[in-house]
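Title: Prediction job returns without error message
Component: structure pipeline
Severity: low
Priority: P3
Assignee: unassigned

Description:
Job completed but the reporter wants confirmation the result is attached to the right record. Sequence as submitted:
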Amino acid sequence: MQTIIEFANTIFSPLISLGAAPMMFILITLFALLMKVKFSRAIEGGLKLAIALTGIGAVINILTGNFAPALKDFVKSTGIELSITDVGWAPLATITWGSAYTLFFLLILVIINVVMLLINKTDTLDVDIFNFWHLSITGLLVMFYSDNLFLATVLVTVLGVMKFINADVMKPTFNDLLDMPESNPTTTTHLNFMLNPLIMLFDKIFQKLFPFIDKYDFDAAQLNEKIGFWGSKFAIGVYLGAFVGILGQQPVQTIFTLAFIGGVALELFSVVGTWFIAAVEPLSQGITNFLSAKFHGRKFNIGIDWPFLAARPEMWAAANVIAPIMLVIALFLPGNAILPLGGIIAIGLTPALLVVTRGKIMRMIIIGTIMVPVFLWSGTAIAPFVTETAQSVGAFPAGLDSGALITHSTLEGPVEKFIAIIVGRLGESFTIQNILIAVGTLTAYIGLFVWYVKEMKKRNAAYAREKEDTNAA
C-alpha cells in the first residue's frame, strides 16, 4: 500500500502543487491536443478555463473577505459565543492537498473512472482533479478516527462511483437549465451535488403536500424584466451587503462599501459563469470527433468544476436570501459552534438546490433553510480534524490563538462527513453497536441515492419526450 501511495505522489504531486487554475489549464489543453484539436484552439480553451477559475475564486474572496469583519463585530456586540472560526474553503483545500493520502485517493479515483468508462458504467470523464480534495476529506476523516486506510479507501471508492453516476444523470438538467446543445459535454462530479438525493426527498414532500408554494414562486430573470434594476443581481447584492453592514453596526461609509461590493460580486458571478461553458467548446468538438471515430458514436461527458452554473440568477438570489437566515440559525442552533464567515455565501448548497428544483426559487429558499443546520453541525463536527490536520501540515491560519478551532461552515458534502466519522469510529472499535450504526447509515444513504437516480432518469426521459415533440412540431 505504501508503494502505491509513493507512486501516486510521484505522478500527481508536481501537477497539484501548481494550484487549481494552472493545473486545469494544463489538463484541458493536453486533453484537447490528445483529441487532435488545433493547437491555438486547445490553448484558448485551457486559458479560458484557468481565467474562469481564477475569476470565480477572486470574487468569492472579495465577497467573504469584506463581509467577515462586519459579522465578527456583530458577534462581539451581541456577546454570543461561537468559538469555531470559519476560514472558508481555500485553507481546507491547502490542508487536504498537504496529505500524501490525498494523492493516493486521487490515483484510486482516476483508476475507477477509467474502468467505469471502459465497462460503460459512466459516460463522464472527470478532469476536475483539483476538487478531488473534497472527497479525499472523507477518507482522511476515517483515518483521523481509526487510522484504517482500508476502510477509508472503501468509502472513497463507493462515493467516487456514485459521483460519476450522478454526473451522468444530471447532464440533461444542465442542458435544460443553461440551454446547452447536446453536443456540449459539460457536466460536473463536484461533491456538492451528492446532496441532491436529500434535497430531492424534501422537494418531493413539498410537491405532494405543499404544492401551493409554487404559486408564490417567481423567475429571477423575469423578475428582473418586470421590476428592472431593483430585482437585478446588482440590487440583490446591494441589499445583502447593506444588511450585513447594518447587522455589524458598521459606519455609514462601510455599509455603502459592503453594499457596492455585494452588488458587483453577484454580477461578476453571472459573467464569470458563462466563461466555463465557452472554455470547453474546443475540447467538446475534439471529443465529439475523436470518440465518434473510436467508439462508434458513443457520447462522453466532461466533468469540470460547478461554476458553469453561475450564470443562473436563481442560484445567487437564493444564496443571498439564505445568507442572513443562516446567520440567524447559527446564533441559536443547538450543537453549533460556528459563526458563518468564509461560508456565508452557501456555494456548497445552492448549486444542488438549483439542479433538483430546476430553479424554483421558493423551494430553493425553503429547502435551503432546512439544509443549513446540516452544514453547521457537519462543520462543527469536523473542526477538531481540520484544526489538527492544519497544524500538522503548517497551514494553521496566522493570527488565531493556538488553541482555537477552525472549520468551514458550508463545506461541500456535509452528509458524507458524518458518514466518514461513523465509518472511522467503526474502524476504531468494531463493536456490534458501531457495526450496526455504520451498516444502517450506509444502507440508508445508498438506498436514497438509488431512489434519486431512478427519479432523475424519469426526469431525463421527460426531457427526451419534450425534445421529440418540439422536433415533430
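Comment from assignee: result matches the submitted record. The beta strands are 84-86, 124-126, 186-187, 301-303, 338-339, 405-407.
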